[in-house]
């Protein structure tokens, strides 16, 4: 972390629509606030399993609310996330493990692509409602994010390696150690201790804790 900069870690998984909202807001603030923003790709399935949490869509009333909530949040946050009832089945039926390993591999080799690559996964899954679990889907996302085919090949070879698997596992365990039970989990290191904020709608509170100014989700 730079002089006097607050380290802010964002633990996320591209299967989580609220993580996309939090990600975009923090991206907008990374040069406004005096923070070092660190993206920490983790595996939501692992967090759910470890903490006994369940996807919100498992509770019918909550699922109904989420359809409205995402719609309102997308408009207010200006992020093109859309959701329909089909998405609940889609999310439960597909694993983001391959995508998150691929994102972890880019983090380990070419971290400058971490932001655009993660964004393209969300766009494909939550804006275009396309698959992100199959190999051809991952290839399409990598191309959209501007990765060369050589780099993509290298990353594909890496995703089955113990180094990548362990890194993703360790990052997920780190999020749990901070107290995460879902995503996004934002950890601000301030006054010598970590402060956990859950969800995309607690960034106003984060600003208050670290002494920064909240200018809404779309600061001009």
UniProtKB/TrEMBL annotation:
SUPFAM superfamilies: Thioredoxin-like (SSF52833). One of its GO terms (molecular function) is glutathione transferase activity. The keyword Transferase applies. The active site is at residue 16. It catalyses: RX + glutathione = an S-substituted glutathione + a halide anion + H(+). It comes from the Eukaryota. Belongs to the GST superfamily. Kappa family. Keywords: Transferase. It holds the Pfam family DSBA. It comes from Anseranas semipalmata (Magpie goose). GO terms for biological process: glutathione metabolic process. It is an enzyme of class 2 (transferase). GO terms for cellular component: mitochondrion; peroxisome. Residues 8-210 form the DSBA-like thioredoxin domain. Its EC number is 2.5.1.18. PANTHER family: GLUTATHIONE S-TRANSFERASE KAPPA, GLUTATHIONE S-TRANSFERASE KAPPA 1. This is Glutathione S-transferase kappa 1.
């Amino acid at each position: 972390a730079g002089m006097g900069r607050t380290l802010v870690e964002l633990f996320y998984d591209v299967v989580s629509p609220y993580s996309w909202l939090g990600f975009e807001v923090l991206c907008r603030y990374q040069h406004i606030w005096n923070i070092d923003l660190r993206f920490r790709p983790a595996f939501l399935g692992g967090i759910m399993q470890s903490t006994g949490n369940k996807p919100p869509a498992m509770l019918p009333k909550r699922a109904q609310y989420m359809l409205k909530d995402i719609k309102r949040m997308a408009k207010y946050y200006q992020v093109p996330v859309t959701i329909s009832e089909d998405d609940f089945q889609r999310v439960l039926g597909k694993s983001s493990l391959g995508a998150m390993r691929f994102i972890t591999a880019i983090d380990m080799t070419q971290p400058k692509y971490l932001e655009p690559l993660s964004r393209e996964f969300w766009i494909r899954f939550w804006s275009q409602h396309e698959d992100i679990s199959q190999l051809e889907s991952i290839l399409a996302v990598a191309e959209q994010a501007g990765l060369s085919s050589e780099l993509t090949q290298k990353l594909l070879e890496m995703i089955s390696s113990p180094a990548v698997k362990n890194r993703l596992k360790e990052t997920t365990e780190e999020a749990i150690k901070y107290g995460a039970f879902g995503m996004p989990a934002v950890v601000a290191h301030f006054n010598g201790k970590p402060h956990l904020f859950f969800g995309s709608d607690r960034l106003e509170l984060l600003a208050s804790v670290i002494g920064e100014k909240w200018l809404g989700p779309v600061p001009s």
